Amino acid sequence: MILESLERLGDWATYWLGDIGRMGRFLGAAVRGVFRPPFRFRALLGQLREIGANSIGVIFFTALFTGMVLGLQGYYTLRKFGSEGMLGSAVALSLLRELGPVLTALMVTGRAGSAMCAEVGIMRNSEQLDALECMAVDPFRYLIAPKLLATVIAMPALTMIFNVVGIFGGYIAGVELLGVSSGAFMSGMEGSVVDRDIVMGLVKAVVFGVVVVWVCTGRGYFVHRIRGAGFGAEGVSRITTQAVVISSISVLVWDYILTAVLL
Amino acid sequence: MKNGAVIRLDEVSKGFGSQLVLNRISMDVPRGRTTVIVGGSGQGKSVTLKLILGLMTPDSGRVLVDGEDITRMKKRDLDRVRSRFGVLFQGAALLDSLSVFDNVALPLQERTSLGRDEIRDRVMATLEQLGLTGHENKFPAQLSGGMKKRVGLARALQLEPEIMLFDEPTTGLDPEKTMEIYRLFSETRERFGYTAVIVSHDIPKVFNLADQVVVLNHGRVWSFASPEELQLSDDPEIVGFVRSTMGTIYRSGGVE
Ligand SMILES: Nc1ncnc2c1ncn2[C@@H]1O[C@H](COP(=O)(O)OP(=O)(O)O)[C@@H](O)[C@H]1O
Ligand SMILES: [Mg+2]
To answer: Which ipTM was obtained for this model?
Structure first.
């Protein structure tokens, strides 16, 4: 009994250590792939459109309503202390430092990350990755690197869009709907936001971008090695769900780590 | 090369978890000939091909290509060895995101320094030989199974491989398409002179192509210098295999 449980525990630990090791090597290979010639410029553009441009709509609406909620909640909280004038500052700082990068990363996970995972997983199961390797084409350079690079470029850009639209949403809720003075909103914002806040948000955006691509393409790449995933289409759908969950949680964990380090 | 074996598996074992798929198997693939590997579904035929390509590493044993053990090779040397192989995968393994043209052009774009026009000419010529003219702008999802295999064959032949591996080239095809694939096989083999390894369970038809036959069953292998030798074998396991796959006619009637 005890021996059996110990054996199971050992088995489980071996599996997860192996899995973590694989994922670590995967990230290394993906980063090396970015710097390995020849560079696939067309593929990069395609991925930028897929991950970046096609996410703008989702980002826009998420940001608008996030900003409006912030304006609303902020207004009622700040009014208790008679400091509605701080609303612009509160909205801008929450967005720039936290909500902008985090929500953008979660949206990119849902929209692009899941698609990446499924794509790579299907390529694994239908032997397309084997075919690339047999043609001596490095799948990391050919397939993963354009996704990684595009996401690292798109994430800060999308985050900036999120921030601007979010602040605009906060302005609508606070100033247009609730009657905070426009001057106070803007000057409060200008007075409190410093370069560091913006830089912090963008650093987060880049790191989250790496995390999302790493987790999502990595899960797809190893779909045949992941315990309990099963084969075929079912395996890919399971692994995609898993990738979205792990990616989302990882973003939040990294958010905490980066905030602690950068603050 | 010694013994004329271009590929040699030496006491190779491979398992997944508690399942042992290949149990110390050894086999030779003679240069310039056609070796047919037969065996039921799930007997490790695809695994064997993946071991030969270095896509999987054996748990023990050696995989020699021209005497070099590829199981211990660095990535770069492995790429060099692989560039001598062409592979037609079971489902053709075309890249979904690329058109027929781009799929076939991929090895040329990635592995040679040929210019655009040259690549275009070569790809169009191969597509024509395989009866795919007019389909070059379609995507894999728009193709029938037989057409996918032809595109896969076109892609595999682009770099004029010395050794071609075919993983169940006719599985899932109707008899007419099957005959067409066999015809294309014979034609391209004549033209390029490659050593061929065909994994199949299209017995007995695939035997028409075979110089050597290898039977894979329950993790063990039996090699026969010709299909006739297989049919005349009196090893009880082979007799059972022949009976279950070809019926008794072939045994009692002897060689066709
Ligand atoms: N990557 C893998 N992980 C676990 N099991 C595998 C893997 N690849 C193949 N197998 C198992 O090995 C056995 C042989 O598979 P395969 O070589 O694909 O059979 P076939 O002879 O039909 O081509 C099967 O039972 C299969 O489930
Ligand atoms: Mg198979």
So the answer is: 0.90
